[in-house]
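Morning!

As promised:
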Amino acid sequence: MPLSLQEGYHVNSNKPSDAFLIPLELTWSKGVLEPAGVVYPKPRMEKYQFSPDKPLSVFSGSFELVAKFSVPSTALPGPAAMSGKLRYQACNNTMCLTPKNMDVAIQLDIVK
Amino acid sequence: MKRVFNKRVLQFLAIAGIAAYLASCSFYEAEWPAVKEEKDRKKAPDFALKDANGDLAKLSDYRGKVVLLNFWATWCGPCEIEIPWFIEFQRQYKDRDFAVLGVSLDEDGWKSVLPFVAREKLNYRVMVTNEEVDQMYGGVDSLPTTFIIDREGRVASSHVGLAGKNTYRQEILTLLGSAKPGSPNNEKSPPVSFNRPPGILRADLFRPSR
């Protein structure tokens, strides 16, 4: 799942530097496939004007998430769709936007 | 020779003084403090929210005082820069009819806010917002968002994002009657508009990757 963030903004990574920061999180609704984890890229440790002493674990620019699924034995071959949500919270150098949930969907073929 | 030397010393001192002043200016002091002229100030929407003690806090209870109304959240780094300034302002000016009110947008409410208030020793009233109050103030999407409200309950200035400590201080002192008004309207502060469509800053930050 390729993602490209607007220039000047960053989002907290899936494992932010502090417990009170809101992590990037991809979750899936119940569907044909069974979620088997998400692979997040390696975050960057960046300092910002509002956090000059402590680097923050963030993603910025273009990056990719990899969603893994397992196919239940009862699943029928053919097209399948999964829907989910990407939760993120973005900031730039001087302000933070409120957390957002973005709908995501993938289409794939089950082959047996 | 002596006259030339003295002149050069004075020039050096002048340059050194200017350089020292510029070096002391923080990154955030780029704004020119200014409050709107009275005729341009809109009434701040009244609201009633419970504070950390469970007591109802109404903005209208503060009529007659200058109020710094700050929308913030525990996950907002820029907000954490400003909060110590607000603690200082509350301490310095509370006896001069001034009050800071903090309104948190934390989705899990007091669960996050109470420990933060205790840890950071906030000395001003803190509340947790609701959708209604957010919409009253144009849909608060960006934090920090701060309004300086005059004694008549009108918004004299507003700031979206991190502002300068001296900017806030000068605006407060202007409204308290202790400082002359600054330059005409600060063009870097967005005009107060409570009719701003909700979600104006909610444009998806993620672009489709190519």
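Chain A touches chain B through 30 residues (CB under 8 Å).

Hope this helps with the figure draft.
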